[in-house]
Design a protein that fits this description.
7 helices, mainly alpha, 2 strands, two-stranded antiparallel sheet, flat
Length: 166
């Protein structure tokens, strides 16, 4: 599929460019349906039941969608919103039971996939220079991942301290 339209600009791109993100969002948010309802559960809610480690693992898995967004060069405001969704999900995941319920209701991965799809199909989106974009995108993603890892480590330290293990 050619990315250039007749005017020489950027054409609308297909969401088929990000099959990994599509599959990851499904696994994390919509893996199984609760029988008799329209409620779906994914690995984010199920693995998140393991305190600390589960949320860290699903946050790492969710970062695949962010990396696809960087690779697809989505606009920085969209990338920042996606990072905020991941950050909020990771932050809520640190709260026992609240985080597990939030995984079912908030569905950050599904939201991020919708944001990524919109950015790919919007032919009028602004193009940043490649070097400035890459530097900005990498900084945003690395800061977000560092904050999520720090929050997880702090939560584990706090739980260990409350249990008298430290």
């Amino acid at each position: 599929m050619s990315l250039s339209d007749a005017a020489g600009g950027r054409a609308s791109r297909s969401h088929d460019e990000v099959p990994t993100s599509r599959g990851m969002a499904r696994v994390l948010d919509d893996l199984v349906t609760i029988p008799g309802t329209r409620i779906t559960l994914g690995a984010d809610a199920l693995v998140g039941l393991v305190p600390g480690v589960g949320d860290a693992a699903t946050t790492a898995m969710a970062s695949i969608i962010l990396f696809d967004a960087v690779r697809a060069r989505v606009p920085l405001p969209v990338l920042a919103r996606m990072v905020a969704n991941c950050g909020l999900d990771a932050l809520l995941g640190q709260l026992p039971l609240v985080g597990d319920l939030a995984d079912i209701g908030f569905r950050s991965n599904r939201k991020n996939l919708r944001l990524l799809d919109r950015a790919l199909t919007d032919p009028r989106r602004a193009e940043a220079s490649s070097v400035a974009y890459l530097v900005s995108a990498v900084v945003i993603v690395l800061v977000a991942v560092a904050v999520m890892v720090a929050a997880t480590l702090f939560a584990l330290w706090w739980v260990a301290r409350m249990l008298g293990l430290l």
